[in-house]
Amino acid sequence: MHAPAPKPALPPLALFLAIGGLYVAQSVIGGITWTGLPAVMRAEGVSLDRIGLVSLIALPWALKFLWSPAVERFRLPRTGRNRSGAVVLAGVLVSVLGLIVVGAVGPASLVPVLACLTVVAFAASTVDIACDGFAVQSLSREHHGWGNAAQVGGAYLGSAVGGGLFLVLVDASGWLAAVWAMALLVLLLGLPFMLGPARHMPEETRDHVPSLAAALRRSEIRRGLAAAAIYVVAQKVGLLMLGPFLVDVGLDLSSIGFLNGVGGLLAGVAAALAGGALVKTWGVRNVLVLALVLQAASLFYFSVFDVQAGWSKTVLFGVAIASSSGILALGFVALYAQFMRWSDPRQAGVDFTLFQCMDALVSMAGGILAGYAAEHFGYGVFFAGAGTVALAAVPAIVMVAGRRSAPV
Question: Which stretch is the leader sequence (predicted)?
Answer without folding.
Answer: none
